[in-house]
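TL;DR need structure tokens for one chain.
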Amino acid sequence: MSSEFHDKHLLGMEGLTEGEIIHILDTARSFREVIMRPIRIVPTLRGYSVANLFFEASTRTRISFELAEKRLSCESVNFSAAASSLSKGESMLDTVRTIEAMQVDAVVIRHSAQGAPHFLAQRIEASVINAGDGFHEHPTQALLDLFTLREKFQNFKGLRVAIIGDIAHSRVALSDIFALKTLGAEVMLCGPGSLMPYGVESLGVRITPDLKEALAFCDIVYLLRIQLERKAGLRFPSIREYQMRYCITMERLMKVGREITVMHPGPINRGVEISAEVADSPYSLILDQVTNGVAVRMAVLYLISGGNERN
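>> reply
TL;DR here they are.
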């Protein structure tokens, strides 16, 4: 089993070994120390160029990658699909090849089509980092989630995580399932049956529609937003009913009788999947996830660039 990460791309969590994941997290820990210093910029990747290609709207992931690149002294360019030649009929591949011809070393891509990062990785010389593809994967989100959990719990063996909400439309859920199972955690999925993807039980997870059962099971509750922009709202009667059945409130947490850690990839819908009181409580690691995302993405950029081989 490899204990390091030497891949040219980061396309997903599926297939990564425990050793590779831990190596990325260890690398991120050193960069976490960097971003907490008064001077947060290091010359590690000076001269390395990155193109951020976001074909879908993003705030946290896009800004996190941009900050990670700046902290590493990368040269970076940001791409807007609406203001690009795509609006004139150019294909995604031709657009990316044009950008690559400007001697870009790496491409960070978010796209609505499942497999878009894999498609590019097979056709361009630059490294490719998946920043979210359709309903498929979001590997750097999973890595920052793992980093955040590791900082609190140290070990993943036996940890119980309940992922609650819109599983069917979530790329975060799939990446977290792959990663958590690889590291020895137990995973339960909870939500309306209409928001469960077909065949997900084959990944070795438990499934329940009952929030009480999920809370009784878990050490960590990981909440997912209802993705109304992907028409998820058509799969259950109303937001009010979803809130009544699945919103995590302080009252529901207190009834469990033990501490449960709360996480969310954002953006959060207060009062829908999580109450404001819980989101802002000491049980919440939501802002820690955001901070850790910069360090994790610094680590990924450093490792796909060749890491120590560059220095």
